Amino acid sequence: MTQPIGLSTPEVLSEARRRRTFAVISHPDAGKSTLTEALLLHARAITTAGATHGKAGRRGTVSDWMAMEQARGISVTSAAIQFEYRDAVINLVDTPGHADFSEDTFRVLSAVDAAVMLVDASKGLEVQTMKLFEVCRQRNLPVITVINKWDRPGAEALDLMDEIRRRTGLIPTPLTWPVGIAGDFRGVIERSSHEFVRFTRTAGGAKAAGFERVSADVAAADEGDAWQTATEESELLTEEDQDHDEARFLANETTPVLFAAAVLNFGVQHILDTLVDFAPAAEAREDASGGHRPVGSAFSGFVFKVQSGMNASHRDHVAFVRVCSGQFRRGMIVTHAASGRPFATKYAQHLFGREREVADEAWPGDIVGLVNASALRVGDSIFEGDPVEYPPLPMFAPEHFRVVRSADSSKHKQFRRGIDQLDHEGVIQVMRSDLRGDQSPVLGAVGPMQFEVVEERMTHDFGAAIRSEALPYQIARRTDRESALILGHDRQVEVLMRSDGTLLALFSTVWRLRNTVRDHPELLLEDLATGS
Ligand code: GDP
User: Fold this and answer.
1) Is the predicted pLDDT of residue 174 greater than 60, yes or no?
2) In this protein, which residues make up the domain named Tr-type G (predicted)?
3) Closest atom of ligand 1 to CA, residue 26
4) Where in the chain is the domain with CATH 3.40.50.300?
């Protein structure tokens, strides 16, 4: 095997050490877009925040970020945004913007090394946040908690800490503690220095919020009772062992907590500092055989997201790759692990801010977008030098099912192409059976919103409008051919073959599944990974 011509190990290691790759997990409206802009603002990537994230007509964060890219001239890959802060390079990987939960989200979280859990102070831990948190837990991702909208009336800070502990099982270890109740945000105690960081409001949050550091004595004199209360609460936290401890954080026992008002740029710098100081750098990833290819070795990475039609002028097929080891150089020839074939990366440049800042290289932790990558599927590994294959990304148990067919019978070809493409991109799971026939596949989704994406994409991208009908199933179990023969006699159960070759038995209710297991204990009915 030829050794790659990349940079030497020490240089790769030092670049990897600078990387912080994270995603924001939150419920819609908690302020993710606002925070994203505020983070960029603070990192000096842009000079004014605000205005681009109007909700009306928004198609999801991809287009938001594209709009931001155009408006701000910043480098965006549409799946990740990169900026420098202090001596670190921060990659913020976008989680899909829709309210619904989908498989996409799981995959994005496989590409990051930490998560920021953004919580609306008045709402606490909402449904979507908890679902995403569960994925972080499954993936052992360290989680930093940010309590947002502290400028508005909300819950008591101590109550929020209780809620975090109760619902996530993580011990909250606040790094800052608010002075003044929610809605009367005066600033925070920085618990490591015991200083008061007083926020000074700037009009509309259009400029970086000013803040001044004030000693505890001055704060006590200026803020009176609010300071007293905050100090007492902070001491209480220390007594209860709720101070930050790096080892416990990285072991997923604790979550550092920060208080912020993203819309006013309050607390944003603390978030950046926390990422740089405490979040893990890009480290060696476990591969499919349980080994760890060192970050300093030759280039390798895996595809965590595939997307089409991002460029209005041509139907690009873009594969987003998380770099796991080595140096990525635009134009390099890599090997596609699944097929063993060479893959040329000469089109990578289209994704890096288009006419600006052509990024010629990337390092462990970075996200690279490869254009015209129709050979690459979600979960695929690519590498240079010694072969490596990263674990396949889990396919989750679908909980919603619809049978679809082409609305126009003369469009069978487009229909087939579209469904195959969406399957390929991992937008939806596609299942078929002889009984239903090839023209009537069953689509399975983790969240019902995935069907809306399918309808829209089929109509607009593939010119094959669909008709679809909900099927009364809620549960899928993996089965085998022998069991399928027996299950075939049960009218209430349907067995279909997913495009990856897995046989799935679909049940309408848990009760129905239990009955089947009771009557036929010999059948193979295996759990699939679940999204809830
Ligand atoms: P997303 O759905 O999570 O991306 O949320 P957005 O960033 O679009 O924010 C939702 C709404 O909350 C918008 O109207 C924001 O202006 C508002 N918002 C975001 N952060 C704050 C904050 O810190 N304080 C207040 N008062 N409003 C905020």
Assistant:
1) yes
2) 17-283
3) 3
4) 18-49+76-283, 297-383
